[in-house]
Amino acid sequence: MGFPILKLPLLAIHAVISNLQLDEIIDFSLCSSKCKRVIKSIKKQPYKSMEIRIFFGYPDFQFMYEKTKGPCWYFNNLEVEKVLRKSKRGEKRKKYEIRKIGGIKIKVMKCEENSLFSKQINELQLKVIFDFLLDLFNNIPICRYSSTLRVNQLNITPEYFGLKKCSSIFYSFQGMPVPDDELHYLFENIQVSEDITINGEVSDEFQLNTAKFSTNELNIRPATWITRDIFLSLNCSRMCLDYVTLTMNDFQSFVLQWLSSENTSFVWLQMSFTGNHEPIDFSQFQTQQWNPKVRERYYDLSYSIFSRGRKIDCLDGRDIRRKDGKLGTIGYFRRKHYFVVWNQTN
Amino acid sequence: MSVENAPVVDVDEAAIPVEKKMYYRFESNDKKEFRVSELAIQQSETLNRLVEAMGYTSEDVENKPAIAIENIDGKTLKLVFQWCEHHKGEAIPVDDGSVPKIVEIPEFDAKLMDIDNGLLFKLIWAADYLNIVQLLNVSCKKVANMAQGKTPAQLRRVYLLPSDEEDEAAKRAAQEAQDPRAREVEEEFEERKRQGGNSFF
């Protein structure tokens, strides 16, 4: 005898669904339009956000709970093969089953962690699945978009997903430059609230006319394409710009700009130059040497993706004080120039 | 404590407790009577509010008629009160909105819910009506467990889910039952369409 789930009170239906896993929720939603509507009607969504990870040209849709990772829908052949190998070694061998999503047949394999695997997927199928998940989970926020080791398997970009908003962008390319179109879309169309990391070459022709990043953290390596105009318009709390083609005068202008502003969100800037550069001209600032009664010797660069847990030795740094009492330090440590603002001073 | 040894029993099967605890009397819709401790009642927000509002003394409980619970039968109510007695004094879970929701089914509850789907269905309705949060959680978890490893086709059978076509047919049937003329009008309309007529009226 079956169990007439849809005849339960709505609160109970929602309680049942909140105990279902990703693969079960998806399969339940595919049973009928009514089932899908029931899932969409849940106020407290089972997942907080979704991450799009592109690895070797194939994406994975990683669901996230409050702070931990949830199940995932894998499309990456490497991941699929890993699971297949595991299942061959004694566990019950998994089979691919057909699911019809948006009128398109898709091969799906379930695994122990309630994740899903699909292989040999094409661009159209992928878009159908992405749109289906977005719809099913009521426009679940995209917390992170990451793309690493780009290989042109599928031509997938943030634009392909119509991404307009996300918390974090992470690019780490090797062997080929990040395509210009993709960077343009990324910087001009996506509102990124937390951090942007572009770790990879860009083409020599790449340039942005205007860009006003207001993300919390910005990591660009190499940052050869960052012009003076862009640099001075950056509105980020933490910035790590490596191999800039800027001049020391630009760095000084940035510090002067902070000095004459009321900006309270800026925390630190760390940058390295390409080639030789002139030394910093301290005559533009009223500076003081380190006084242990005023501030600590070491500055904690915590939070940053690249420098988590690292500290800067500010022994030789020169301190400058703004009108409102905020204390900043300009210095050079391990081949990088830095300008940091202290949170606590005496 | 096993399900069998749980203190909730039909009134004619159990001795009246000797402790000086307050025991309330409830009656199901099929006239079965139960004595339930004050502490066990606290698991049900609905019943707890009800007895608080009534303000019964021990004498009232004995002298006044049992409190009627009109939409739950004796078999279901017995399970509900057995559950409440077993979990009396336990904190009532508060939904803080965090995910994932982790619900474990204790051994006692698993045994209590080793029942047919019809009774489980009634138990969930009762837990919802009486607002017994944790009983609702564990019973719904049991229903969720039925989905493990199932395909959509199997889920349709497990959860008796009609397909879109069946839903549509049921909707049409319900409409026709409401208005018998509707079918005639629809048939006439279809017939005219087949004959190539442009206007219906």
TrEMBL record, chain A:
Q: Which UniProt keywords apply?
A: Signal
Any signal peptide, and if so, which residues?
1-18
Keyword Transcription regulation annotated: no
Name of a matching Pfam family? FBA_2
Report the residue ranges that make up the F-box domain in this protein.
2-50
Q: Which InterPro entries match?
A: F-box_dom (IPR001810), F-box_Sdz-33 (IPR012885)
- In Swiss-Prot or TrEMBL terms, this protein is called F-box domain-containing protein
UniProtKB/TrEMBL annotation, chain B:
Question: Does the record bear Calcium in its keywords?
Answer: no
Q: Which residues form the SKP1 component dimerisation domain?
A: 134-178
Q: Which residues form the SKP1 component POZ domain?
A: 26-88
| UniProt-annotated stretches for the region Disordered | 166-201
Which CDD domains would you find in this protein's record?
BTB_POZ_SKP1
Q: Extract one GO BP annotation from the record.
A: ubiquitin-dependent protein catabolic process
Q: Which InterPro entries match?
A: SKP1, SKP1-like, SKP1-like_dim_sf, SKP1/BTB/POZ_sf, Skp1_comp_dimer, Skp1_comp_POZ
> Quick one: which pathway?
Protein modification; protein ubiquitination
Q: Where is the composition biased (Basic and acidic residues)?
A: 169-194
Q: Which family does the entry's similarity section mention? A: Belongs to the SKP1 family.
Function as written in the Swiss-Prot or TrEMBL entry? Probable essential component of SCF (SKP1-CUL1-F-box protein) E3 ubiquitin-protein ligase complexes, which mediate the ubiquitination and subsequent proteasomal degradation of target proteins. Regulates cell proliferation during embryonic and larval development.
The name on file for this protein is Skp1-related protein
Organismal lineage = Eukaryota, Metazoa, Ecdysozoa, Nematoda, Chromadorea
